[in-house]
Structure of Short-chain dehydrogenase:
Amino acid sequence: MRTRNNVVVITGASSGVGRACAQRFAARGWTVVLAGRRAAELEELARRCRRRRRARALAVPTDVTDPTAVDELARRALAEYGRIDMWVNSAAVAAFGPLESVPPAVVRGVLDTGVLGYVHGARAALAAMRAQGSGTLVNISSAVGAAPVPYNSAYVMAKSAVRALGGSLRQELRLSGHRDIHVCTVLPATLDTPFFGNAANYSGRAVRPLSPVYTPERAARRIVRLARTPRREVYVGPAARALAVLSALVPATTERFLARQMDRHHLSRTVAAPDTRGNVFDPPAGAARHGGWHGRRRTALRRLTTAVLLTTLVLTAGRALRPPGGAAGRMPAAAGRRRCATRRRRGPWSAG
């Protein structure tokens, strides 16, 4: 697939991963169509993108929870540039706290953005791609879509649904014979974005990212590569893959581990926080790719945590593959004694 002068639509482009993706696509000569709730920030980002190799950029303020607005986003992209080669669903909001503490309207708001927003984007993108015969839809899920965590249940549900959506859409496209239309799901580990500072919070405790923390640029690089080499699912950061494998192999152990990590490290035990709806209904002021969580100390913690996860994975896999009764080739002592007694009774040349 050629990449220069192709057209990509990015939702949630105002900040975080969406913003990082926009700048990386523009640096490679892509035409970028930027969608988000903050018009001023989108226009500022569009100006930045146009300075990258004279890339074309169009800002379209869009609330992804409104299907009519998302259809209009696709119509604007097609009217302006004639095609949509890639569509990146990146918008997301979250609400921290025990489920019973989070107001039902906030839970619904998280699901409206994180599930229905992706459904609206997928419908608009696939309609355009079916008409032109090719294209790639990228849905950004999360490592928690494979390994759930507590105190963020609405977001976990949304990201699990996004992963399931990808599987369903791939099957539909195969059955309809559209082999040149791809659906890719991206599962990042914790990323250094404004996500944590902007989230709704009803836990009573300040939210901190759970190590290891990776940069949004790392996710953007992974997403841009999907334009040339589409894949079903890709992980961002070794920790994301390790958690997914551990959750599949030893789900109960992984749940206990993540529960402790979330309670001890993700929510502060010393810093209180007032209840807030965050950016679930209203976008925050300002725009940035980073949240200020990535640095030397966190890089060291990231590497240490990844090493621990990988070691746990190897040890767990070793225990799962070990034959019952001990190491391979070793006969349990009781069975060995019974066999020797049988041989003595039958004689050395007896059959069986």
In short: Residues 104-132 form the longest helix (29 residues). Confidence is low (pLDDT under 50) at residues 348-352.
